Predict the 3D structure of the following.
Amino acid sequence: MKPGLSAALAPRGLTTYPLLFVSSAHKQIPIPLTALRAFDAVMRRGSMTRAAQDLGVTHGAVSRQIVALQDQLGLPLFDGPRNARRATPAAERLWADIAPAFERLASAVQAHGAVARRLRVSGLSTLVGRWLIPRLTGWPHGDEIELTESYADLDRSLEGADLAIRMLAADAEPPPGLVAHRFMDNEIGPVLAPGLEAARARRLVSRSHPSAIDDWTARTGHPLDDARPPMLFDHQQTMIEACLAGLGVCVTQRPLIATDLASGRLIAPHGFTTDGAAFAVFHRTGQPSAQARRFLAWLSDQGAQMSRKRVR
């Protein structure tokens, strides 16, 4: 072996390098999708029982998924007694991040699927029956709408609905996590069947708004003081039917009896006043789905049409 080659092949001191951790760019952190889906359902529906019904599983299955998610995160997501569990601030923060992700997934599946997802709308029963449903004959879009009736106070779950229609008092703010769009003023006034006299007709009131006549009288100074005790009804719907039948006078909201005023079945001798409140539609904070945006725009237009008719 040549001397130069021998020197080149002789062992040399080893060179050390810093320890490196190499990971694949394609490696992903395991995501507990089943547990997150259960958590999303609980937050949307407001209870594990309703979440289990939506998911088609048992209450225990949902509870186990929530426990597993809490263990993985190292954070409590719900506290309080078993029959009244409340979301913790950590749960609210988590849901604020994952709810839009599930909504985007649902939108993607809907966009690429053959079956359209229904838009779920919760509303006040009398408004739904007497104002919204008759106008749905003019709904210009192909979206399927699923209506539910509810007077429940709102929270971020919206009782599982996509949108909820409720009253919003003057200067009131929507509940945390919700956005409100006012679409129609709350116009109220006394109505009765033709041939009756408002001041002498028997007063009709509902359990849901027992002070409606007294509040309107105090605001306007027009007395409706028939000496007979008022006739009480469980719901505005039945109270309005009694009014249509000629049983007396009631104070109600103009949208609920607009069709009856137009047909002449009811008259409004003192017109209508506003109290600053409004009919509003609520959705969760963030960008609503395309379906929801179409419904919001259509509902706003329907409310504007009511206002134009009032001006005329």
